[in-house]
Amino acid sequence: MRPETIKKIKTELLQMRKETEKALEAFATKEPGNTNDFTGTFPNYGEENDENAQEVEQYSTNLATEQILEKTLHDIDTALKKIDQGTYGICKYCHKEIDEKRLLARPFSDSCIKCKNKLQKNQ
Q: Which H helix or E strand runs over 104?
């Protein structure tokens, strides 16, 4: 892959990381010592029963969102680490180069389209 493409992708990954952390910080606090671990905070809307139900619903939504965003952070960090190690853009299944268009569209992809399609068909 061309060095200028990798540089562009790295810049995009770093920006995505900032945005993902900011989204998490809107409803969760970062755990000390682990950059990708956040803990959702329980909202407090008041003491009425309907407010309690809203709090539980919001907390459940926040937990699901937290898991997705933490996974995204992990995937971004893995891609950045591979860039630094010089192994970025290699499919983890077939060990062939991932198409540049796929990486530009989804910079933290770790598999080529062929392997991803094969995996999805087997599920």
A: helix 100-105
- Mean pLDDT score of the chain, rounded to an integer? 85
pLDDT at 51 over 70: no
Average pLDDT value for residue range 47-68: 71
pTM of the model: 0.78
Per-residue pLDDT, averaged over 105-122, amounts to 92
What is the helix (H) or strand (E) element at residue 120, kind and residue range? helix 113-122
> How many Å apart are CA 90 and CA 13, to the nearest integer?
17
3-25 vs 49-85: helix crossing angle, rounded to 10 = 160
**Longest pairwise C-alpha distance within the chain:** 59
Where along the chain do its domains lie?
3-88
- CB-count exposure of residue 54 (10 Å: 0-12, 13-18, 19+): middle
Euclidean distance between CA atoms 107 and 84, whole angstroms = 14
